[in-house]
Write a structure and sequence with these properties.
It is a single chain. By secondary structure, this protein is an alpha/beta fold. The strands form 3 sheets. The chain has a 5-stranded mixed sheet with strand order 6-5-8-7-9. The longest helix is centred in the middle third of the chain and has 20 residues. Bound molecules: phenylalanine and cobalt (II) ion (CO). Phenylalanine binds next to helix 6.
């Protein structure tokens, strides 16, 4: 059976390289056009992650997965999720074709709308694909939108994004690093132990194991300016993970006006993804850095 595919407008040279550019509007989730294969891909990925994530993902994430019934079989309907989400935190999912321009993305978040790619990866892409699909966006990001503090953080990030965009590209880069090291690849130190909350991790089997178990990467306590001044990798597992103590800590650290921070960071050289700052970092784990690529940080 034919598998539903997104409407890529064209490939275009952008500051992220030569990437597909999508129509930027909101669409209706074409639920009835998903193929059997599409539903099976969801079920396979879901089963695989849920077998591994207890004891690895934070409890708030696991609770969210359960409350949404993401494992009831087949690709969930956004309309069903929205019923639960609206009542819990007032967020709403909107279906989109794929990665959005920054301003469009920020505008959605600032209005408590989370854009989710409506299409799912192919069976041969279970372990890796280079752009976010439905599994990453929905399974990875949406469960934590049930947590009131995290839900507010995401909205504040959207508002902050609009501000950073107006200030300039360097500010935007600093803010993007914050998103990368928290929303996408964040770890949280809980009473039960170190846990995952980042969407880029929980939607990846390999990285869900690597981020907690591997000796190679650093695990360093979250510090706002440190994070905003640290480059990252988009082509490998992370070389450094930043660890928050709680979602409250994250929310409170990001509440002050970033304008003076952006100004300060303009004068500084960013840290490489693998750097450990000997006298400043709160180090949970000093990585062996074995096998690290040393060029091409973003
Ligand atoms: N406080 C930030 C600013 O003034 C906005 C922000 C909030 C950014 C939360 C990220 C997360 O720009
Ligand atoms: Co994501």
């Amino acid at each position: 059976m034919e598998t539903a595919t997104p409407r890529k407008v064209e490939h275009q040279q952008t500051d992220r390289g030569y990437v597909p550019v999508y129509a930027t509007g909101v669409v209706e989730q074409p639920w009835s056009s998903y193929s059997r294969t599409d539903h099976e891909v969801w079920d396979t990925l879901f089963a695989r992650q849920c077998e591994m994530l207890p004891g690895r993902a934070c409890q708030e994430f696991l609770d969210g997965v359960k409350k949404f019934g993401l494992g009831d079989g087949g690709i969930p309907k956004f309309a069903d999720i929205n019923q639960v989400l609206a009542k819990a935190t007032g967020w709403e999912l909107v279906a989109v074709e794929g990665l959005l321009p920054d301003e469009v993305f920020f505008d959605h978040l600032a209005n408590r709308r989370f854009p989710v790619s409506w299409w799912i990866r192919k069976p041969e892409q279970l372990d890796y694909l280079s752009e976010p699909d439905l599994f990453h966006d929905l399974f990875g990001h949406v469960p934590l939108l049930l947590n009131p503090v995290f839900a507010d953080y995401m909205q504040a990030y959207g508002r902050g994004g609009m501000k950073a965009h107006a200030i300039g590209p360097e500010a935007l880069m600093n803010l993007t690093r914050l998103y990368w090291y928290t929303v996408e690849f964040g770890l949280i130190d809980t009473r039960e132990g170190m846990r995952i909350y980042g969407a880029g991790i929980v939607s990846s089997k390999g990285e869900s194991i690597y981020c907690l178990d591997a000796d190679a990467p650093n695990r360093i306590g979250f510090d706002l300016e440190r994070v905003m001044n640290t480059r990252y990798r988009i082509d490998t597992y992370q070389q450094t993970y930043f660890v928050i103590d709680s979602f409250e800590q994250l929310f409170e650290a990001t509440t002050p006006d970033f304008t003076p921070i952006y100004a300060r960071l303009r004068e500084k050289t960013p840290h490489a993804a693998a750097d450990v700052l000997e006298d400043a970092d709160r180090v949970f784990h000093y990585g062996s850095h074995e096998g690290f690529a040393t060029n091409a940080d973003t």
